[in-house]
Amino acid sequence: MIMCKKTDRHVSGQYVLTNKVSLVAAAVAALLAAPLAQAQPVVSGSEISWPDDGWYQVQSADGLTNICEGTRSCQVEPGSYIVINHTTGERFTHVTVPASPATGSIQVDGNTVSWPDDGWYQVQSADGLTNICEGTRSCQVEPGSYIVINHTTGERFTDVTVSSSQATDEVLVDGNTISWPDDGWYQVQSADTYESFCEGGRSCTVAAGVYIVINLTTGQRHEGIVVEGDDGAGTGLVLDTQSNELITELAGYRLDEAAAAAPEVAASIIAGNIGVTVLEAGQYEVDEIAQPTERTQYACAEGGTMTLETGRTRIRESEYSHDTSYNIWEFDNCQTELDAGVPVAGSYEIIGKLAVQRDFVSGSRFNTIENSIAFTGFDIRTDGFALTVNASVQASDNTSGVSINRQRSVSIPQYVLQESSVPFSAPSLTIADANFIQEFSNTSNGALQSSSLDVQGWISGELTDDTAVSVTTIAPLNRVLGVGSLESENVPFSGQLQMLGSDDSVLTISANPEASEGQYLFVDYNLLDADGEQRETIGAQLVDLPLAAYDSLDWLDE
Predict the structure, then answer these.
(1) Could you say which residues form the signal peptide (predicted)?
(2) Partners of 108 in the β-ladder
(3) Domain spans of the chain?
């Protein structure tokens, strides 16, 4: 019954993208590259080797084939390779093994000069006045010209040139934004959980942390990308970074999960066997026909009662069926010990009502699933935890022939979650005056798809650093996508949302019809932060919320 932590929901390509990269990113990239001077792979003949400072892997240049892993060196065919130190996250691209390395030849790979194991070598500056390296198998140097001497044979190699060319596949970091070249389809993942935050676009705006950036077109991986963040306003609220999370909260998935714990709470009360009273039957309607319910009142261990009302209907007719599960839990100052279905074991006081209904209707050419959840005057609390809810959810999934229509409608007049035993501390999450409507339809076997989103309400808590945020739909987000012969039915993605923070930050979210291809929808962000600084993000992926009603109330059938 209790929503105790934020649901980890997959959001395709979450969260935000931008096409602006400042010169600060170059400095960050330089810092990331600094350790390479001490851990560069070395090529000698057909062998690639590396220092004993981690667990290494050698891949083909496209990243699709694993050649060696977990060794100190790797014998390979002539070509270009990727070498990865999985311990540090460092990647070395374009490690080249020449076709026919001549005995005594000098090789340059990036900023590394190397040579065969046929003597005692020394590397000097081009004027011969400065000794750079000696007695090693390779030498890390700055861009420029050098002299390499094999003191065993006396052979000298002059004008050995190390270029200063910058890799074209560089990943840059600017504040909270990671960006990359326009050379493929990129994905950004958390280095800790591998959760995907963004797919596609030219950049991704994320919270501070460590990330993996993958070019899915070439297979190239960039690991250990550090985002220190630049949240600007002095608070933890960064609207363009957090907008998808805010929309997800207003979608009310916490209500689904809170309702799903109801049977555990009820079972704990019933197991106490303090007192049971069978009440007069109630009723509900199915297909406009009154159906009976069973009503039973249970005494709570420390005072008060819980009334459980249940109804089950199964209609079977020719080419038509209708199954209904109907449940109401009503608490009248119920005081009891709980350790199941709640985040904190303890002595609870519960008041209010929770009603849940699930309908499954099917015919010869259609089926419909409809779920409803309603919290009325509901409040549950103990030391260190309290939840107050007045809210409802309606979810439907309709299939007819080759067409699918899904809808989720949420109303949250009040949702207050308190997760602290400190008196008068701020709630972990507060949602009020929220309404959320999302629809999706798929007709003609997927050849014509339409989607829409309308959301409003205000929210505050840990997610917003206790800053209140108001969300408003200026114009509903709408898109119709036609494929093949139905391409003429296309309606470009349109609409606009706005978020206003009590710290005076303003975020405008506008549909981007040009970036929205296939099933993914992209938007543009225009942020005016609390310090009066403006930031624009082009082509951020809009959160992809689950709409299917199939499994949200499966627990009713258990």
Answers:
(1) 1-39
(2) 113
(3) 111-162
